[in-house]
């Protein structure tokens, strides 16, 4: 299983994160996705239609709140699994009235960092 690299565009937009966190179905997915799960597993666990799960996963991915991992399934096909990719969300406002958002990420083990490097090298080929 290879962890897809997060976007290098910087932190997600504040409104995107707030929209995702304000959605009850997105919150249900975040609550359940403590380990890598397929969209089908999330649909069953959260009692949400699979098409809705895919829409919510798109929103959660755009908000950088879940991580998509792609790999090869037992029958040789490509599979995607999703896992919550934050431990804390902080929203703050500075003295000029500008809002900002900060996401705390879980620490990565050495094998995950190595998988990220290999994935990045493969994307460049």
Automatic annotation (TrEMBL):
Gene3D superfamilies: Winged helix-like DNA-binding domain superfamily/Winged helix DNA-binding domain. SUPFAM superfamilies: Winged helix' DNA-binding domain. InterPro entries: ArsR-like_HTH, WH-like_DNA-bd_sf, WH_DNA-bd_sf. Pfam families: HTH_20. This is Helix-turn-helix domain-containing protein. The lineage of its organism: Archaea, Methanobacteriati, Methanobacteriota, Stenosarchaea group, Halobacteria.
